[in-house]
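forwarding from the other thread:

> can someone predict this with D-malate?

sure thing
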Amino acid sequence: MKINRHFDEIQDSYLFAEVENRVAAYKKKYPEKSVIKLGIGDVTLPLPPAVVDAGVRAVRELGQSDTFRGYGPYRGYSFLTRAIAEYYARRGIALSEDEVFVSDGAKSDIGNILDLFDSDCTVLVPDPVYPVYVDTNLMQGRKIVYADATEANGFLPLPDESRRVDLIYICSPNNPTGAVYDRAGLKAWVDYALDCGAVILFDAAYEFFVGDARLPRSVYEIEGAERCAVEFCSLSKTAGFTGTRCGYTIVPHALGNLNKMWLRRQSTKFNGVSYAVQRMAEAVFGEEGMAQCAQNVAVYKQNAALISDTLTDMHIYHTGGINAPYIWLKCGMDSWEFFDRLLAKANVVGTPGAGFGRNGEGFFRLTAFNDCQSTAEAMRRFRRFFSA
Ligand code: MLT
């Protein structure tokens, strides 16, 4: 048997699986402890009522012979691709419906899109970054070069014109640092990609957290991006779909063959998102759904502000937490050691910066997705932990 040897190049377990294993081991040893999780970015608020109602109606339709549906269209139902195109249109971005592809979430598509690119491509990945970008490329044997995101550049690296690459990952608002590119920053990347003939893989999973109208929520707000960028988005954080699963990917026609190739890839390997979930996703983009999602996101943003204010008060350097659900703090020591100490002494879980790349060492990520009471309690424990 010849196995894919590239798996030897990745860590034995996925970052968040490793965090989960350590927490499970701790809880097994100390079952009486109440552990607060600010680790993986998993939402805690229930689905918006408009979304639930749409799901119930859709399931009822599936139970009637005249409204039953089997396989859906490969791109997604047109009621949803249209709703997504209209969502972009409301933000001044013109998309045709067949540039929108419905998926079960951004993570899958971010990995799957690599089917369209040669294994010889050189890939540029910011460091630190969401580990999926690195792991999926390593699994397929691609060469990765890194763009250093550091305190010095506010965790928003700009292109190095002296090197040529084929694929560029950008996540803004960023996971894990919460930093957000302004228009000038994104334009620098778009210009660079156009100059190199590279494709930007733009992860917009956290766009709904951007409250500052001056900051771009989509790469297509930048002129020329439709000729060099694919955009991935997810309803996980916008609408609480981490368990429900639905996202979408924009592959503009201006990218040449990629739109056709992506349809070919999806129709071969993916049978789509269930009808009921697509109806629920459609409801997210309706007036009521949008307002209810905004209410939930406002709660998470309140948590983020509380975390950020607590850290400011304690004079701990951090980024994020304003237009993003993540807070990236300087822990000033080996980040896995900090993780273990924080878990043992404060019973609070976060994510070690080292899990996001070399430049993440010495940093630690907290999420704003827990409920208000637990977040407030975690911050009280944080204060005690640091003053001990
Ligand atoms: C995270 O915590 O970074 C994300 O929730 C993980 C994911 O979206 O897969």
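Residues 40-41, 107, 130, 175 surround D-malate (CB under 6 Å). thats all i got for now
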